[in-house]
Amino acid sequence: MTDWNQRLAELAERHNVPGATLGILSQGEITDFAYGVLSLRTGVETTTDSLFQIGSITKVWTATIVMQLVDEGKLQLDAPLVEVLPELRLSDPGVTAKVTMRHLLTHTSGIDGDVFTDTGRGDDCLEKYTAVLADAAQNHPLDATWSYCNSGFSLAGRVIEKLTGGTWDAAVRDRLVTPLGLTHTVTLPEEALLHRAAVGHVTHDGDQTVAPVWGIPRSAGPAGSIVSTVADLLKFAQMHLDGGGEVLSSASAAAMAEHQADLPDKYLLGDSWGLGWERAGWDGHRLIGHDGNTIGQAAFLRILPETGLAVALLTNGGNGAKLYEELYREIFAELAQVPVPHPLGPPDVPVEVDPAPYAGVYERASIRQEITVTDTGPVLRVSVTGAMAELLQEEPVDYPMVAVAPDLFVAQDPETGNWIPATFYELSTGEKYVHFGARATPRCAS
Q1: Which of 2, 140, 240, 249 is the most exposed place for a label (fewest CB within 10 A)?
Q2: Rounded to two decimals, what is the model's pTM?
Q3: Which fold has domain 356-445?
């Protein structure tokens, strides 16, 4: 039997991860491990009861609360949201009238997904955020494609507030944290301060420093602000493995894991999406899970329902994606005999594809992507714009691109060396898009 504590330490050091916790749920038992420090500035040691930001894994928690409300007859997945939020106004009146909770949970609403407007720390932050969406772009027609949408989950959080009469944070506490007996799970920074909490780290020119901002705005809470331990996260996973346990009906738990939407890019995340859950196929085995990324922290959760195996990894900097890839490959091979697919990279034999037709500007809220053809090949320049630019203060990043197949390239992150797929495609109505970083971004200039 592998010493997972040792392997966590060895691989975290290899990938420059300052601190990490690993949790394994197998045969109904949770074991957890810790490595490194919570902050390079303070040197405080990571322990298994240390809290990390789970980022977008939060979305599955928000979806679970939504499904509780469905169980209670307070919400219908396919009813227009305006029945619950008559004040809702989106930039496209047709979408305002037709968008449903199913669209939000499956990332098919077309609402620009990265609107991170900070609407304050008050309990009315999601109410104010919902009003801000009146100015958010409609990136694609309703239900026309799949594009990762943080904004939709903030909107889902507001629906939860309207139906429960309290804040989203209170709903998480009252409907999940307390019933599941989770003692180290919070949603607000002032609550995290009462625990041993990690800070994120960012890398510039090879040097890691503490992230300039600890967390994301409260208005993005339902999309990514839960702070937890691997043990608490795996207790949440166990509830889903148990068919919803005492907090969710078995029908709703099953519906969350079922196929709802296909992904244009089947290489970066999974191949399809459920109601909140990412769905992935590994060598014929069906998994559900989710990843999370905040400012300098990255989280990973994978569940193999057929064996009851679930693995959680929380990190606070460095190349968390590479740590996840190597560590999970070993864990799933030993404990489930299931191979973890390797990320898509450049082909062994170069593929000749003319990149000129893909050159141009693709843009959505917070992100501008410009593809140019240079003497050494195509380059994708990614610039952060808007509120996120003010928050992160990052310079544009150039990603060299290599063709894999017609309409499919991989772009290399210059900081980590990781390869990210870029899929070019058209909607049925002819609009051109690039799918990069799990987002569909429309072409706006050539």
Answers
A1: 2
A2: 0.95
A3: Lipocalin (2.40.128)
